[in-house]
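Morning!

As promised:
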Amino acid sequence: MSIYKHSYRAYMGTLTPHWSRIVVLARYALAEAWSSKITIALFTFSMLPAIVYLVGIYLANNPLASALILRGNKTGLSIDAAYFLKMLEGQSWLALAITAWIAPRLITFDLADNALPILLSHPISRFGYVFGKFLALIASLSLVTWIPCLLLFAYQAYSSPQPWTWDHLSIAGGLLTGSLIWIALLSILGLALSSWVKWRVVATGIIFAAVFVPAGVGGIVSAVMRTKWGLLLNLPVMMTEIWQRLLGAPSVMRPRQDLPNQAMATMLVLACLVSVAMLNARVRAREVVRG
Amino acid sequence: MNERSDRIIFEEVSKFYGEVLGVNRISFNVPPGVTTLVGPNGSGKTTLMNLLTGLVQPSSGRISVLGLSPSNPAEFFPLVGYCTQFDSFPAGICGYEFVLDSLMLHGMSVADAYSLTAEALDRVQLGDAAGRKIAGYSKGMRQKVRLAQAIAHHPKVLVLDEPLNGLDPMARAESLALFEELGRQGMHLLISSHILDEVDRISDRVILITGGYLVAEGNIQHVRREVRDKPMQVLVRCDHPEMLAAKMFAVNHCVEARLHADGKGVFLRTGDIDQFYTLLNEIAKDGLVKIEAVAPSDDDANAIYQYLIGSDGSAS
């Protein structure tokens, strides 16, 4: 029998915390998401409304410019909760477009290329893998939602007389909370739907469909059954109501059409749970089934 | 964690994909060294490797790798390196980044990750190509960078799924030398490969699998001896092969003799290898035939594969 010198030693150095490894995955995902020119074009386009709202704040706070351009008519330029609600709504729907483009890039490629066996052969769990992608998507969507909204809020706070800031601080909280709810929902929904579709373009379409088809169904339910509960399937309406309440803006709903907070929260949690179940079923190392 | 365990243990492990059998009631106990996993396409080799690395969960049975359960990746993967057969990499990444990012995922500090990346790329001899995008790599270079990724974090167990596919003869020889060296140093290597002749040279033991069932497991020579219904073949190099063949045929256990193409040796097939060697000793002692060399010619993985599984991949 051969006598072998067992000199092999495993790595004994210090290891970084587990959470930092998820950041590596998020960095991968961000690089993947932003390597596309379409992502950059969408991001650039989504900044245009923010610039328009910036100009609005400038005009509202600059008497000279306002007099020159608006000729004293300031009725449409009241910088309040309704103004920021409109901005948040616009940015949020642009975030949906960005999600529909980015989410499939983050997860469909890995599943289609069988990359999961390599990635999951590391000290990271399936949860860690999904969370890394989730963080990348949240970071990307933050750039078009709460970050520009809060920057404009800060600019308004800087431009206006001091009492405005303290009187309207709830708007900033609403912008942040409302944005985070929306982008968290979009991220998990986008990843879940992408994980079930092999073709990226189809996944993009399905993400849009997942938002607007139930809205149509909810509208039909409401009309046929003469009930307001069909609105719970209407994500655009439901989110607008949530943002309106968070920012403290005037209600946009018709009388007796407003939805209870608990019902809306339940629907959002349910959508998240379904998405988690879809991810759990789909995100696993490819199992090679013998033919 | 069982600190003293140095074994890979499968106990009655089965995996079913719905109604489709992956592997059925597989049991083995493997010490450190090089183990070759042999079986036809679709026999369950990749399923076995995925089970070993925890990428799929067994339907029943227990798996222990160095005393650890594969179900906890945080504890498990620092000790295990897996080189999959899938040709997939993150888009737009170069070989160096691929290995470096893998080490970061393993939790290495940036300084350690850089030095270990350089070491691993050096070991697989990827050279200057490490700085190029993987998308532009040849199949062999992709295989090398995958191997570098698997060994970079200094695992104790290395699982290699078809690691020689796509490599040219020189690269295959280099990879085999690396596997042999790692095996000698006390590392576990579990290799699946169709290139049996080459893997056979460095293997300490073999696991034969077909149709999801374990056919044989253990030291290659021992497994060969257990295949009693297939007489063993021995090549004897001598000055009078015809005379040796005639002598051998005088005994019952010798069932076939075939002259070597160069006329300086004879292939003899015997049903009782111990008696065969005793008789050969006597012939050599009598001086009737001058024997230059004696070597078994069918106790390699290839022969065992042919005998136990058959050329069509079905167990015989």
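Chain B touches chain A through 53 residues (CB under 8 Å).

Hope this helps with the figure draft.
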